[in-house]
């Protein structure tokens, strides 16, 4: 597995992504490209359009050209790599694909998107295979366009990268400093046996247990934990711990501590102080706590006792004035220099 896959999928449907246009979807719908989970397949399941595929599939092209689909990223940011998965497409996969990206201001229609930049050149594909393709462009993007040559089917497109929030929606406001869409990230975790800890800071509410974080059962007398890096230093006023959908595997208790560290992952010598003392939790329940601390923090550590799962963690607060300036400077640097390559 490529190193870039440690970053969240910026295009995932449950992260707010959407396939907003495609020139053709005759055999299988474009929306499947960004569905969560692995592609499924059942043999001899034929519908009016032929074998049913869990992916995007276009008709056989009888004229020059290529097919394409445009995805609006739910989490705009710097793209570190893409995964083109042709799972189950064995005799009908595209032999080549490329990926372009653009940065759009506001809420534009597909035909209004311009200044496309090639981030993955035309690359050979195999059938029923996962293709991990690194991206080196350092700019912040809001949309990607998958081009397949000349036609065929792709099961999934994953767009892994670093979330870069628009500081205009963070400065001077009370916001969720632990939210993935605001640039927070999980930098360490004791156990991710059943599901990734990044789920706990994902947008929206979890619809079932798989969309939260759940650990294996502990037998050693310890407890599980994760560490969230805030998008920038801030002060947290309210903590929300949501155990929705966790009926018989919610933690019995939880606590939150914090530190102020310049490192992405605080060193073992970091000094942690309490934000929320060890507190009893209930199954299938959203919990809200008003916090007394006004100290600046960069990381929060959630401890659950002894194990179990959590649907969501929210830390509502404000950024420091310096953090607001630093986020604005970084955002400007990542959006300043376009490198257009328009495709008719």
From TrEMBL:
It is an enzyme of class 3 (hydrolase). The keyword Hydrolase applies. Residues 16-163, 183-318 form the Allantoicase domain. InterPro entries: Allantoicase, Allantoicase_dom, Galactose-bd-like_sf. Keywords: Hydrolase, Purine metabolism. Pathway: Nitrogen metabolism; (S)-allantoin degradation; (S)-ureidoglycolate from allantoate (aminidohydrolase route): step 1/1. Gene3D superfamilies: Galactose-binding domain-like (2.60.120.260). Its EC number is 3.5.3.4. It comes from the Bacteria. One of its GO terms (biological process) is purine nucleobase metabolic process. One of its GO terms (molecular function) is allantoicase activity. The keyword Hydrolase applies. It catalyses: allantoate + H2O = (S)-ureidoglycolate + urea. HAMAP family: Allantoicase. Belongs to the allantoicase family. This is Probable allantoicase. It comes from Acrocarpospora phusangensis. The lineage of its organism: Bacteria, Bacillati, Actinomycetota, Actinomycetes, Streptosporangiales. The gene is alc.
